[in-house]
Amino acid sequence: MSDIDKIDRKILAVLQADGRIANVELAEKVGLSPTSIGERLKRLQRDGYIEGYGARLNPQMLGLGLLVFVEVLLDKTTPDVFERFARAVRLAPEVLECHMVAGGFDYLVKARVADMSAYRRFLGESLLALPGVRESRTYAVMEEVKRDAPLPVG
Amino acid sequence: MSDIDKIDRKILAVLQADGRIANVELAEKVGLSPTSIGERLKRLQRDGYIEGYGARLNPQMLGLGLLVFVEVLLDKTTPDVFERFARAVRLAPEVLECHMVAGGFDYLVKARVADMSAYRRFLGESLLALPGVRESRTYAVMEEVKRDAPLPVG
DNA sequence: GAATTTTACCTTAGATAATCCGGAAATGAT
DNA sequence: ATCATTTCCGGATTATCTAAGGTAAAATTC
């Protein structure tokens, strides 16, 4: 599975916490020269361990104060519904995540909007407007207990 | 609410897509000098729009091939259950997100584990072992249609 | 088991980028 | 219109990245 050693894991852990850290500083933290770090970084990126880097923004500050999860059931008699639903969801900017799940429903959608009225609009005009959507259950988040934790690499 | 202008939004959009971009390159993209970009960045960070930077890792490559969502119901007769549950969840490395929701259940947990047997262990030893957990429903993800989309800043 | 290749690492030096400072231009308020 | 504030830029300094060359250890081959 993984041919990465302890140093690689340390690098990944540090980079998850601070993706913009300078190479020299990262080198100090893991006890290697900046050059070696650079080579390891390039390898980790080439082999697909690191997919990219991103800024973590504060949703509240950007007027996206409401986080919602929506369970969606599709009408499986219509053909193409899954593909069409997936395509539409990828285009909707409010949708941060969408997963096809095994269990009582078909898709679990995670979306961020400004407030409840914005959500009503999104639900009616984006989600339920799609053909083949048979049922939906909305769960509004009251408190985010844990948000976007780093992957355990240790 | 937001006193950030179009240039700030552009900066945030670019940084979400590539958090490790060089300042000079970012400056070219938004049509400003690197010095000004630096000042804006510092302000965006100080005011809390940018909470940090992180590397995006590939869960599969790290042996975390299974993504699950768990709906958890708590026994509200026991005191402190919410606080204790929240504390435990924050400490569990498998749990990437946990939200208290309004609706048919109390908490929605998002977790990544190696496989089903690892999940069984996590569910039994970490989640259900907590006092006050009355019921849980697990939904295993079969396909990740949309993953970690950037926040709409436009 | 010895020779060879490969790999990982370090140091150095030259290129590149970030930061600090002073001043100019734009913006806004009185 | 004037003053104050903010935003921006250019140049100098400092820090960082990157590429080249060299060494040692490990893996591979014979």
Features:
homodimer; 154 residues; alpha+beta; Arc Repressor Mutant, subunit A; Alpha-Beta Plaits; 2 domains; four-stranded antiparallel sheet; 30% strand; transcription (chains A, B); DNA-binding (chains A, B)
Short description, anyone?
2 copies of one chain form a homodimer. By secondary structure, chain A is an alpha+beta fold. The first copy, chain A, is built from 5 helices and 5 strands.
Number of domains of chain A: 2
Helix amount of chain A, in percent?
Answer: 25-40%
Spatial ordering of strands, largest sheet of chain A:
3-4-2-5
The protein's oligomeric status is homodimer
Structural class of chain A: alpha+beta
Q: Rg of chain A, please?
A: 20 Å
Indicate the CATH topology of the largest domain in chain A.
Alpha-Beta Plaits
Strand content of chain A: 25-35%
Q: Which chains share the greatest interface?
A: A-B, 65 and 65 residues
Number of strands of chain A: 5
Major beta sheet summary of chain A: 4 strands, antiparallel
Organism (chains A, B): Tardiphaga robiniae
GO biological process, one term (chains A, B): regulation of DNA-templated transcription
InterPro entries (chains A, B): ArsR-like_HTH, AsnC-type_HTH_dom, Dimeric_a/b-barrel, Tscrpt_reg_AsnC-like, Tscrpt_reg_AsnC/Lrp_C, Tscrpt_reg_HTH_AsnC-type_CS, WH-like_DNA-bd_sf, WH_DNA-bd_sf
Domain HTH asnC-type (chains A, B): 4-65
